[in-house]
Amino acid sequence: MATETLFVAILLSESSSSAPDYRPLYREDIVTLRAPSLREARDRVKRHGRDAQISYSNQVGEEIRDRLLEVVDVAPALYENDTSPADLYSRHFRDLTSYRTFEPLLDGEAL
Questions:
Q1: Residue 25's beta-bridge partner residues?
Q2: What is the mean pLDDT of the chain?
Q3: Residue from 73, 54, 64, 71 nearest 24 by CA
Q4: Could you point out which of 61, 66, 90, 93 has its C-alpha 20 to 30 Å from the C-alpha of 2?
Q5: Residues 34-63: pLDDT tens digits?
Q6: Do 55 and 64 touch, CB atoms closer than 8 A?
Q7: What is the phi/psi pair of residue 23, to 5°?
């Protein structure tokens, strides 16, 4: 049996509704998983994201749908130790204004 490495993956999902005034809500999930290779980690996390997709009708008959849009990234974890806190993933960006625009929690907006 091959040794499994700890990976971190970023998944992008969308929540939508048939309600006429609904604004789509996008979610970024950061998950950890163990796999013997990067390719297998990508396959496993894609299955994980697809398995989490749901679609249902709410109490007023509107269709609510959560679906995986994309696996954004899969990378080996920065460290494999069990310390707390543990750095798992690091992402870099250049445009703080854009980040603030898409991240509602920075300005205290309720989800």
A1: 15
A2: 87
A3: 64
A4: 90
A5: 999 999 999 999 999 999 999 999 999 999
A6: yes
A7: -95, 125
